[in-house]
TrEMBL record:
Organism of derivation: Stephania yunnanensis
Biased composition (Basic and acidic residues): 432-447
The entry's keywords: Amino-acid transport, Membrane, Transmembrane, Transmembrane helix, Transport
A GO CC term assigned to this protein in UniProt: membrane
GO biological process terms on file: amino acid transport
Protein name: Amino acid transporter transmembrane domain-containing protein
Cellular compartments annotated: Membrane
Taxonomic lineage from the root: Eukaryota, Viridiplantae, Streptophyta, Embryophyta, Tracheophyta
Domain Amino acid transporter transmembrane: 30-388
UniProt keyword Transport, yes or no: yes
Pfam families cross-referenced by the UniProt entry: Aa_trans (PF01490)
Region (Disordered): 423-447
Transmembrane segments: 33-55, 61-80, 178-197, 266-284, 304-329, 350-370, 376-397
Length: 468
């Protein structure tokens, strides 16, 4: 029986290894440190950078600078925490965000906490990128094509044009296979950000510029404030793919993956600062509270440069879409293989990923105002996964988890030794000798009982915290 059980376990482990070698997150672990740099730049510096002047207008100078600066510092710190916790347990790598959360909160609770929020961030971002990519193509076309023969093309068709290459790019097997696309996207993000703030600076301050509140009513100002927080949190929302990016980097006891990953993160965040702060501050300084929600809309001339900048945005969101889509593909394919009992194959991959691209395209076409919901999504999912709840809870839960495991082992040992001791006592000793032994060890038993009670109390408190 024991041999049969061992054989079954070996078969399960072998199948698990084969699945991990097929899934897009863990199938390739030969990434360089600079891969993490431009993957993070592509994920962080989305088209949201173009809305930062608008967020500044909603907040004002003081709160705007404080929120933008604190967001940069806090998200860098929480990202460092995640990089450190990737190999929190010796000999094990948490290759996915939900695996880390499951380690802290348990298999089921950890999954229920993180998966809905992570999918909301990733799928929501991909839908926004569908709309943004279509709008960028439309703006480039309308700006560059000024002759009488140019026809007005609906946004729906531009979204379909943007989605078309994704049906093919999405079939690339893993993160490392899209590094060239991610590199191009990172370069494009720096380029159009530079175009945005340098062109704004060259244009100069608008006549009669104002920096007062955009809204005249208290509810309006509160709404603007909360919407700005959501937009800024969206601009920094890349933590949901950090562990997946780090999973592609090789790790050894001498050089753990956190060292090259952190090097790439620092370079990425330097680029983020170079993109975000000039665009936000110069854009708000020049246009004031009349700035549009996309700084490129406020810039009308030179037309050719604005058109080219929109094409750069298109290239960038192609890469951003893929960076956020790969973890979704990983979860989809894991579910289809483990839960639906489907065989890992190229056909399964093509069908599943094509359906996902089609789904995001359909939602983008149906709700082209989806980007207007960024404030809601920013507060509901981007902020928790990026700023505070999960990572802070993981740091809080880890020492409790260690204490829980220690106390559980202690109770098991005590119960085992106690049962063995009393079994041997009843067999080898008379009742008088047993009473003398119990009296002699009375104080020791009381101390042991106190320790057992304390351990059970700590375990109970830990289980209550998990239930909450």
């Amino acid at each position: 029986m024991s041999n049969t059980t061992a054989d079954i376990d070996n078969i399960k482990q072998q199948r698990e290894k084969e699945l991990e070698a097929w899934l897009p997150i863990t199938s390739s672990r030969n990434a360089k440190w600079w891969y993490s740099a431009f993957h993070n730049v592509t994920a962080i510096v989305g088209a949201g950078v173009l809305s930062l002047p608008y967020a500044m207008a909603q907040l004002g100078w003081g709160p705007g600078i404080v929120v933008l600066s604190l967001s940069w510092i806090i998200t860098l710190y929480t990202l460092w925490q995640m990089v450190e916790m990737h190999e929190l347990v010796p000999g094990k790598r948490f290759d996915r965000y939900h695996e880390l959360c499951q380690h802290a909160f348990g298999e089921k609770l950890g999954l229920y906490i993180v998966i809905p929020q992570q999918l909301m961030v990733q799928v929501g971002s991909d839908i926004v990128y569908m709309v943004t990519g279509g709008k960028s193509l439309q703006k480039a076309y309308n700006t560059l094509c000024t002759s009488s023969g140019c026809k007005d093309i609906r946004l729906t068709y531009w979204i379909m044009i943007f989605a078309a290459p994704h049906f093919f790019i999405s079939q690339l097997p893993n993160f490392n296979s899209i590094w060239i696309i991610s590199l191009a996207a990172a370069v494009m993000s720096m380029t159009y950000s530079t175009i945005a703030w340098t062109t704004t600076l060259h244009k100069g301050i608008e006549p009669d510029v104002q920096y007062g509140p955009r809204s005249s009513t208290t509810p309006g100002m509160v709404f603007d404030f909360l919407s700005a927080l959501g937009n800024i949190s969206f601009a920094y929302a890349a933590h949901s793919v950090v562990l997946e990016i780090q999973a592609t980097i090789p790790s050894t006891p001498q050089v753990p993956s956190k060292k090259p990953m952190w090097k790439g993160v620092l370079l990425a965040y330097f680029i983020v600062a170079a993109c975000y702060f000039p665009v936000a501050l110069i854009g708000y300084r020049m246009f004031g509270n009349s700035v549009q929600d996309n700084i490129l809309i406020s810039l009308e001339k030179p037309a050719w440069l604005i058109g080219v900048a929109n094409l750069f945005v298109f290239v960038h969101v192609v890469g951003s879409y893929q960076v956020f889509a790969v973890p979704v593909f990983d979860q989809m394919e894991t579910f289809m293989v483990k839960k639906m009992r489907l065989k890992p194959s190229l056909r399964l991959r093509v069908i599943g990923r094509s359906l996902y691209v089609g789904f995001t395209m359909f939602i983008g076409m149906t709700f082209p105002f989806f980007g207007g919901l960024l404030g809601f999504f920013g507060g509901f999912a981007f902020a928790p996964t990026t700023y505070f709840i999960l990572v802070g809870s993981l740091r809080f839960a880890q020492p409790l988890l260690e204490l829980y495991n220690r106390d559980s082992i202690f109770l098991e040992l005590v119960e085992s030794k106690t049962s063995k001791k009393y079994d041997s006592t009843s067999a080898d000793e008379s009742s008088d000798e047993s009473k003398k032994r119990k009296a002699k060890n009375g104080e020791a038993e009381k101390l042991k009982a106190s320790n057992i009670s304390a351990s059970r109390l700590r375990i109970g408190c830990f289980e209550v915290l998990l239930a909450l």
